C-alpha cells in the first residue's frame, strides 16, 4: 500500500464538448503555474463520458498533462453486432482504466454480478485496469480484480462521507488476506476531506465524482494529496 495513490475523477454523464475543453485548459494553467508540486506519488485519472475520450486524449497530449484516461463502463461483449455498446478493444485505444459495477449502473441499469463479471473478463482480455466498485464488504468481486473502489451508496453525491478511519477498516475487511489488493474510497470526496482518506496508508486512493467536475477543485485535491 505504499505505492502511488490514485485520484480517479468520475465525471459521470456530465459536460458538453466546450466544458471538456475549458476543464483541460484550466487544469493546464493550474498545473503549469505550480512549479513546486511533485506528482511522483500520484496517479491521476479522469473518466469522461465515452464520447469525449478522443478530445480528452488530444488535450492531454497537447498540454502534456500527467493525466491518464479511464471510462465509466464497458461492454460485456467483444467488438461486433452489439448496438450501442463500446467494447474493450475500442476503449483501449484511449484509456487505461475502467470502472465496473458503479452503484449507479447496478441500480439504474440493473447490472448483475454475472454481467459485471463478463465486463471484467473483456477488460482483462484487452489489458485495461479494472476498478471494481462495491458498496460494502459483502459484494462479490471477480478473482482477477486488483483494484476495488469501496463506495457506500449513502455517501455518493450526498456530501456525507465515511471517516477515513472507517473506510480504512472496511478496506481491510475487503482486502482480507489479499494483501496486494488495492482499495480506493469514493463517496463525496473533496479537497477538504481527501487528506483524511489518504493518510495512514490503509487506502490506495480516492474516486471523487462531483469534486472532479471543476478543474480548480480537482487540482486542490491533487495539491493536498501531493503533500501527504
Ligand atoms: P461523488 O461521487 O464524489 O459525487 O459522491 C462518487 C462516485 O459516485 O464515484
TrEMBL record:
Major subcellular site: cytoplasm
Pathway(s) the chain acts in: Carbohydrate biosynthesis; gluconeogenesis; Carbohydrate degradation; glycolysis; D-glyceraldehyde 3-phosphate from glycerone phosphate: step 1/1
EC number: 5.3.1.1
Signal peptide: none
Keywords for this protein: Cytoplasm, Gluconeogenesis, Glycolysis, Isomerase
Molecular function per GO: triose-phosphate isomerase activity
Catalysed reactions listed for this entry: D-glyceraldehyde 3-phosphate = dihydroxyacetone phosphate
Keyword Cytoplasm: yes
Any single GO BP term: glyceraldehyde-3-phosphate biosynthetic process
Entry GO terms, CC: cytosol
SUPFAM superfamilies noted in UniProt: Triosephosphate isomerase (TIM)
Subcellular location: Cytoplasm
Keyword match Cytoplasm: yes
CDD domains the UniProt entry points to: TIM
Family classification: Belongs to the triosephosphate isomerase family.
Quaternary structure and partners: Homodimer.
Official protein name in the record: Triosephosphate isomerase
Species of the source: Candidatus Gottesmanbacteria bacterium RIFCSPHIGHO2_02_FULL_40_13
Lineage: Bacteria, Candidatus Gottesmaniibacteriota
Amino acid at each position: 500500500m505504499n505505492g502511488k495513490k490514485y485520484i480517479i475523477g468520475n465525471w459521470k454523464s456530465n459536460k458538453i464538448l466546450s466544458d471538456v475543453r475549458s476543464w483541460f485548459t484550466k487544469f493546464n494553467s493550474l498545473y503549469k503555474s505550480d512549479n513546486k508540486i511533485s506528482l511522483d506519488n500520484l496517479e491521476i485519472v479522469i473518466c469522461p463520458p465515452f464520447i469525449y475520450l478522443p478530445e480528452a486524449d488530444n488535450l492531454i497530449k497537447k498540454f502534456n498533462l500527467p493525466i491518464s484516461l479511464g471510462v465509466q463502463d464497458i461492454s460485456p461483449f467483444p467488438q461486433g453486432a452489439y448496438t450501442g455498446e463500446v467494447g474493450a478493444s475500442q476503449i483501449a485505444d484511449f484509456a487505461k482504466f475502467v470502472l465496473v459495477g458503479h452503484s449507479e449502473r447496478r441500480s439504474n441499469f440493473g447490472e448483475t454480478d454475472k454481467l459485471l463479471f463478463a465486463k471484467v473478463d473483456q477488460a482483462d482480455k484487452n489489458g485495461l485496469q479494472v476498478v471494481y466498485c462495491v458498496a460494502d464488504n459483502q459484494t462479490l468481486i471477480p478473482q482477477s480484480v486488483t483494484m476495488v473502489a469501496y463506495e457506500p451508496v449513502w455517501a455518493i453525491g450526498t456530501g456525507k462521507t465515511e471517516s477515513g478511519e472507517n473506510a480504512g477498516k472496511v478496506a481491510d475487511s475487503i482486502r482480507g488476506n489479499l494483501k496486494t489488493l488495492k482499495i480506493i474510497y469514493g463517496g463525496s470526496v473533496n479537497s477538504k476531506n481527501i487528506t483524511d482518506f489518504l493518510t495512514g496508508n490503509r487506502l490506495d486512493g480516492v474516486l471523487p465524482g462531483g469534486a472532479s467536475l471543476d478543474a480548480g477543485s480537482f487540482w486542490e485535491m491533487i495539491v493536498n494529496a501531493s503533500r501527504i
